[in-house]
Amino acid sequence: MPAPGPFNSNAAAFFGGVKSAWTSVFFLVLAGTYIGMGALAHDFALGAWWFALSTLLVWASPAQVILVSALGAGAAPIEVAIAVGLSGIRLFPMVVALLPLLRGPSTRLRELLLPTHFTSVSMWVESLRLLPALPRERRIAFCNGLSVGYMGTAVIFGFAGYYLAAGLPPLFAGILLFLTPLSFLISTARNCREMVDRLALVLGLILGPLLTYWHVGLDLMWTGIVGGSLAYGVHRLREAAR
């Protein structure tokens, strides 16, 4: 998708963000993913409107899978809340990386609350790619429009998957859920511009399966910590040797 053109107002930037969301590859990814997730919610006998509300409030498909499957299996709400909260920690570095692109000299704190909540991998990847081409005063509105476009897609196709669940084979639903991590991997690989980024990605791809095979608890968190730290250490050594 090409970079967005100039916008004369915040409203134009907002609707430009919505258009960018609906013309990006993540639209198709979210549509497929949330058809599968809607079917998952149906299979666990959770309400359609309950699932839509969880999409708006949680706004992270891996955390929603944890939420739906754990509650559907009868887990205690406090245990589910802790698991969902730990899953959401992975978004914190994304928020930290995104906010400098949005904040300007006159930006107020309340203007950053919505983009902070809206931060997801799809929105983050596209924001880092598209926002630098926009004037800083239009970036928050564009970012909010981008997120509303993605979130609206998730809610609509979540309803579709929920009501199509009776005729959706389990294998097909699982394939649709796999679209999300696959698209994230491809987008991350595409946005790797420096050696440290590529090294962190490679280490993550190696460590993740190994820790899962060894049944290490919190394998995703340890993959990020160990792989990212090693990549950063190698980067600092290379910089010091120059």
- Encode the helix/strand succession as letters: HHHHHHHHHHHH
Apparent shape: globular
Could you describe the largest sheet, including whether it forms a barrel?
A: none
Report how far the terminal alpha carbons are from each other: 37 Å
Question: Which consecutive residue ranges, at least 5 long each, have pLDDT under 50?
Answer: none
Task: Count every beta strand, where a strand is a DSSP E run of 2 or more residues.
Answer: 0
Helix content: over 70%
Radius of gyration: 19 Å
Structural class by secondary-structure content: mainly alpha
Number of helices: 12
- Indicate the proportion of strand residues: under 5%
Mean pLDDT: 86
Walk me through what this model shows.
The relative contact order is 0.15. This protein has 12 helices and no strands. The protein has 242 residues and is mostly helical. The two termini are 37 Å apart. Helix 3 (48-58) packs antiparallel against helix 9. It is globular.
